[in-house]
Structures are given as structure tokens and as C-alpha cells.
Amino acid sequence: MITVGVAGASGYAGGEVLRLLLGHPQVRIGTISAGSSAGSLLGQVAPHLTPLADRELQATSPEAFADHDVVVLALPHGASDGLARELADDVVVIDCAADHRLTDAAAWSSFYGSPHAGAWPYGMPELLTHGGVKQREYLREVRRVAVPGCYPTAVSLALAPVLQAGLVESTDVVVVAASGTSGAGKALRPHLLGAEVMGGMSPYGVGGGHRHTPEIEQNLAVAAGEPVSVSFTPTLAPMPRGILATCTARTRPDVTAADLRAALDKAYGDEPFVTLLPEGAWPTTGAVLGSNSVQLQVALDEHAGRAVVVAAVDNLTKGTAGAAVQSMNLALGLDEQAGLSTIGVAP
Ligand SMILES: NC(=O)C1=CN([C@@H]2O[C@H](COP(=O)(O)OP(=O)(O)OC[C@H]3O[C@@H](n4cnc5c(N)ncnc54)[C@H](OP(=O)(O)O)[C@@H]3O)[C@@H](O)[C@H]2O)C=CC1
Ligand SMILES: CC(=O)N[C@@H](CCC(=O)OP(=O)(O)O)C(=O)O
């Protein structure tokens, strides 16, 4: 059995990691740690994790994670790197925070306003990279993984195939995406006041200011083989989980709807966790709740000359914890699908 510890186990991402690990046949759950709720029982903060209800949350420290095979960090941005540096080189460290996602130090400083901690292998196995090689080939036997952001998961998987196939202009990509409130974590954020959130939808990070913009552009540039410029607008939707991303890009001359569909089909036809829906069916967040699936659909807007690719993911599952477990499996040479399900919860 592999011993996996989780730092930030009292939070939404850490809780979802534990939910998935409880269903993993080769995993024994080791230390679970927290910040202010250290000393509490997990059942007090995450009552849905029944089998672990009596486990005590430890203070987060390198010593608490000694003798683990894997440590998953589900801590706020900036808190991961210090702990990661104290963990042994042969321990697999999977970081759900943004600290190690960006390769460009200037982009990091500009969007996060702190020193760049450096980039780790990026935990999106299905992402197309140079020459059509999937990112999973760069995750085998690694000891450090940066788990992608939730919006970049939906958007990058939606657009990478059509960019790599040269079907759309890399300089004209527009994304509007809606997220459930759990995307912001348990801590109260200014844009997350309960009464307002429940009543309607609202945009935030408008005008290119959201920190996922450079992450999306980084992923798409790797797929396209050239810089990609993205206008990204996130919105907050009155639902606990889920992301629906509507991604459009100007098509190159003579591109047909069949070309777009063929690019996505070629990229994901063999992927267990990315599904191009049958023609006429559209992704919904409800269909992917609790599952590690990404659902996609594509259309050609001939009038506007744009490709439209819609993606649905569960921000906490494929958008965080599922990607963490999938990457852990690759790093350890286990079955990539172990502990992961494509079965959603409905209605
Ligand atoms: N929510 C999402 O959809 C996604 C989240 N992520 C990333 O995952 C990470 C966790 O996010 P999320 O679970 O949403 O956030 P939460 O606020 O829900 O949880 C944060 C966790 O970190 C702990 N914590 C906070 N500060 C410290 C500290 N200084 N030292 C030790 N532990 C601390 C908290 O413990 P306590 O509550 O006890 O203080 C809690 O367990 C973030 O980096 C986030 O960006 C990534 C993709 C998507
Ligand atoms: C609804 C909401 O607030 N979502 C979060 C993104 C969640 C995510 O993916 O997080 P990290 O990149 O922070 O890991 C946000 O927009 O800040």
C-alpha cells in the first residue's frame, strides 16, 4: 500500500482529495493536516468523509509528513512551496495550489505579486503538447506535480486540439466561464457574499485580470506551438460545484464544422476522462458532478466565423483532486484510472 498524506485536509480541495483516495485500492491515508482547524476531528469539518470522521487534523509541518510515499498539498497559494522544500526528494509531492504551475517568472510576479517558486511538471495528462505528445508522457515517475487550476482545465482541454490542428487563430481566443462557489475555497472572499451569490450570476476578474489567464495562455501556446492571446472572463454561478466554459476562436479560412469535430475526436477518442458528446448534446455541469470527466461539444458559428467549444468539469474533481490523483497514479506507475470515476451524481 502507498501512504498518502494530505495537507489542507479541512478545505474543499483537500476534502475532495480524501474522498477520492478513500476509493483508491492501493492507498492508505496517512497524516491529514490543517491550519486553524488543527486539533479538530475531520468529521467536524468534513462530515461527508464518514470513514475518516474520527481522524484528528494535525498541525501542518514537514515532520507531520515524514515517512510518507506521497504528500498532497491543498494549501492556499504561497503556503505550499515552503513545506515542499522540506520534504525529501524521493517523496511524490502533488501541489494543488498555483505556486508551481507557471514557467514564466514574470507572468507569475505580475499576476500573483510574489517571488516565483519555479515550475513543476504540469498535471494535465490529456493536454496536447509539441508534436502531439500528450502531457502524461512528462508525468511518468516524476516526484513533483503542479495540479492545474480549475478554469485552465476546462479551457485548455477544450481549445488545445483546434489550436494544434491550426484550425483557429491563436490571436483571437475569447473565453467566458461560469464556476460554482466552491472554486473560491472555504474562506470567505469579497466576491462571495452568500445572499448575493444565491440570487444570480456575476462576473469578476474582468478585463484580463484573472490569474488563470497566463496559465491558460501557457497551456494553449504549448499546444499551438506559438503564443496564444486569450480574453478570459470568469463568472460566479449560484451552485456549489462545476465549471461551464464557453470558448470561442476565429476560424481560419475554409474550416468546416467537421474539421473542428475531427480535431477533438482525434485528440480525445481514446481518453477515458475526456468525452466529446454526440452531435447535438451539450455539456452541463450537472452531468459531471463528482466525476473525473470533462465533457465537450463543438460547433462552427459560420455567421461570426468562430469555433465554439463548450466544456463542463467539476472544479473540485477533474478541476483539482481528480487531476491530483490521476497525476499521482502516473508518477507512481499505477493504473492511471485507479480511484477515479467517470460516473456523475444526478439529478
Ligand atoms: N476549490 C477549487 O475548486 C480549487 C482549489 N485549488 C487550490 O487548492 C488549494 C486549496 O484550495 P481550497 O481547498 O479551495 O481552499 P480552502 O480555503 O477550502 O482550504 C484551505 C486549506 O488550507 C489550510 N490552511 C490555510 N492556511 C494555512 C496555513 N497557513 N498553514 C497550513 N494550512 C493552512 C486550511 O486549514 P484551516 O481551514 O484549518 O485553516 C484548509 O485546510 C488552493 O491553493 C487552491 O487554489 C485548485 C483548483 C481548484
Ligand atoms: C469561483 C472562484 O472564485 N474560483 C477561483 C478559482 C479556483 C481555482 O482553480 O483555483 P486556483 O488557481 O486558485 O488553484 C477563482 O477564480 O479565484
UniProtKB/TrEMBL annotation:
Q: Which UniProt keywords apply?
A: Amino-acid biosynthesis, Arginine biosynthesis, Cytoplasm, NADP, Oxidoreductase
Could you say which protein family the record assigns here?
Belongs to the NAGSA dehydrogenase family. Type 1 subfamily.
InterPro entries found in the cross-reference section: AGPR, AGPR_AS, AGPR_dimerisation_dom, AGPR_type-1, NAD(P)-bd_dom_sf, Semialdehyde_DH_NAD-bd
Chief localisation class: cytoplasm
Reported EC number(s) for this entry are: 1.2.1.38
Q: To which species is this protein native? A: Luteipulveratus flavus
PANTHER family documented for this protein: N-ACETYL-GAMMA-GLUTAMYL-PHOSPHATE REDUCTASE, CHLOROPLASTIC-RELATED (PTHR32338:SF10), N-ACETYL-GAMMA-GLUTAMYL-PHOSPHATE REDUCTASE, CHLOROPLASTIC-RELATED-RELATED (PTHR32338)
What is this protein called in UniProt?
N-acetyl-gamma-glutamyl-phosphate reductase
Query: Start and end of every Semialdehyde dehydrogenase NAD-binding domain?
Result: 3-135
